[in-house]
Amino acid sequence: MDLKEARYILAIARQGSIGKAAESLFISQPSLSKYLKNLENQLGGPLFYRMDNCYTPTYMGERYLHYAEQIAAYGEQWNREYEDISHRKYGRLNIAIPIMMGSTLIQPTLMEFHNLYPHVTINVMEAVNFIAETSLKDHSIDLTFYNVHVFPKLLDYEVMQREEIVLILSAGHPLVSRAVDKPGFKHPWIDLNLFSGENFILLYPDQNTGGIALKLFEDYNMDPPVLLHTRNSEMSIKLAMEGLGIAFAPESYYHMAASHGSHPSLCLSIGKSPIVTTTIAAYPKGRYLPQHARDYMEIIREYCAGKR
């Protein structure tokens, strides 16, 4: 099995059809069909079941794909390392991030990166779900930026910043007057227990902020009504700003939404001590990172330090 062969068969498995796989590989459908047929003849059995033009791996195909993934991963790492060794400035950087982090972290830092690497193409994959797993499953992803309160054990990572998780509500909310200045807190502080009967707009528990919210409720022995669950941080923040309910979010997310919002709102500190989340740049263990990826992490780290 060589690298070309591995990539061809992986494309068929991922796309589920010869036509889509050929398109993704920039080759003709007849050429790919012939390639697969010749390979299966050499192996003495089919790699895929064919049903209604849908290609599903056989048992032999599943085992083949297991090793093809490894070959493709090593091939990708070699290509990246070779780019560094030969001092070429051309390349690509594939990033996976939560949607709102694109505006708060990636967009403000891209111009500096582009000035440094004008011929490196950046592909940003934005998702509302938990994106760390993508870095483990998809060998094409170089870096995953996301917020954590529990550090991953299956990923290598570097810390980019730490910021406060704040409570967001409309400026006209009657409990705003109960907020006080408190030593050690950046924003006016309020007792979370005061909101035990208020409607909350929460992210799902498998998301960082959603998990933090549930832990806070547990610590405060609270079981408040939940008006809405969503995976969209921006929507939860804007609905809270409009007065529909109460939301939690990283401070940078709130400030980004507030800068474009039309409803008066504010954020408050909560907790016995500031509730802090950490933004990390993560990648699969043992993954070779090209120099431009390492440089981009440093650009983001310096940008975050400048906001403090």
From TrEMBL:
Residues in HTH lysR-type domain copies: 1-58
| Domain of life according to the entry | Bacteria
Gene3D superfamilies attached here?
3.40.190.290, Winged helix-like DNA-binding domain superfamily/Winged helix DNA-binding domain
* Coiled-coil blocks: none
Keyword terms: DNA-binding, Transcription, Transcription regulation
* Example of a GO MF term: DNA-binding transcription factor activity
| Record CDD domains | PBP2_LTTR_substrate
Spell out the InterPro entries in the cross-references. HTH-type_LysR_regulators (IPR050950), LysR_HTH_N (IPR000847), LysR_subst-bd (IPR005119), WH-like_DNA-bd_sf (IPR036388), WH_DNA-bd_sf (IPR036390)
Q: Which GO terms of the cellular component aspect does the record hold?
A: cytosol
Keyword RNA-binding on entry: no
Q: Which family does it belong to?
A: Belongs to the LysR transcriptional regulatory family.
Name it.
HTH lysR-type domain-containing protein
Biological source species: [Clostridium] citroniae WAL-19142
